[in-house]
Amino acid sequence: MLSAKSLFQEIIDDDASFALFCSIAAGGESQGGWENARIAALVPPDERRLAPRIARHGADEDKHGRIFRALMRRRGLEPVPVPPDTDYTMLLERGGIGLSHDRLRGERPLTVADLVTYLSHSRVTEQRAAEQMALLRRHFADHPDIGRAVRMIADDEDNHLAYCHEELLRLARAGHGAAIQRTLRACALAEIRVYRDVSLAVMAHMGRILGWSRARAVLLAAGIHVVYAWERFAGWRRMVSLATPARRDPLGGPATTAPEYA
Asked: Which residues of 100-123 are buried (b: 16+ CB within 10 A; e: fewer)?
């Protein structure tokens, strides 16, 4: 039976597909770590209280990259090149979502409007990350090889999403509500397109590695298009709502360390 659990089980059971999965994930997490570190360094003076939280966010992302690389080492695997059509963070930036890398490489302090852009982008992408990790946690939390990593990363993603809600609500109360809603909507609609394209690309690469039949590849692609159609019609709205999170000040402490793998 074709299910999310069986599909991912097939990917992690094969060395080549597992190396590609971990390489894609590690690359995206490491990129997120760099972006957050630069944002923390450029926070405007009036918002300096945010800097350690943004830095913690970046440290968590760096940690996740190390975890994925450690999972490969544990199986004697080396990272593989990430196909450009699977590079989620790069494609989001090319689509004009979030703060550009050119902006982050400079030394000019960010503005509050820039923080709205950053937090809105993070609110949308962390929703996706939290949902994906919740799925993996549901099916693989007790897996002997990846279970510990899945649990740790899933917990971090929940914290990141809660932090975005908390900070966007604070800025909304300060008078930026209309800008936040406009930016969230634009980010969400762009993200679901990028996610569809990346999902199709990842499944195509996995299918070639694992030797999937044409019928199976067509079925998976159709499923991705169905998800996109639902998200384009109504599902994007879950990415733009804001609510006080149950976890308060979730990034207020130091980052936890990555597990050590033999």
From this structure: eeeebeeeeebeeebbbbbbbbbb
